[in-house]
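Read as amino acids, tokens; as here:

___
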Amino acid sequence: MAASAPLPNLLIQNTFNLPRAMVFVDGENFAIRYGCMLKANGIASHPDVQYEQDVFVWRKAWGNLTTGMPTVMRKYFYTSVTGDDLRIQNSRKLEGSWP
């Protein structure tokens, strides 16, 4: 079996020496906790926040929260919704707002 060619030095220096991270957001838990905070404090959701109870919460400005973190290679936001077709379709309309 022939040995594979070595990776170029530039690739090695720029890939392996940088701090890297992947971000996973549990959107369902995030939304549930956000709803509990609203209820406990007797306040309404901020107008800049897209919120669907127990399913989704996000604010576009939160997408910049990775400042100061290592290079973010990937960001994953995941959630789930149950209900009839109309409920699922309405939830999917928010997808464009998702991180």
User: Anything to note?
Assistant: The chain has a mean pLDDT of 77. Residues 27-41 form the longest helix (15 residues).
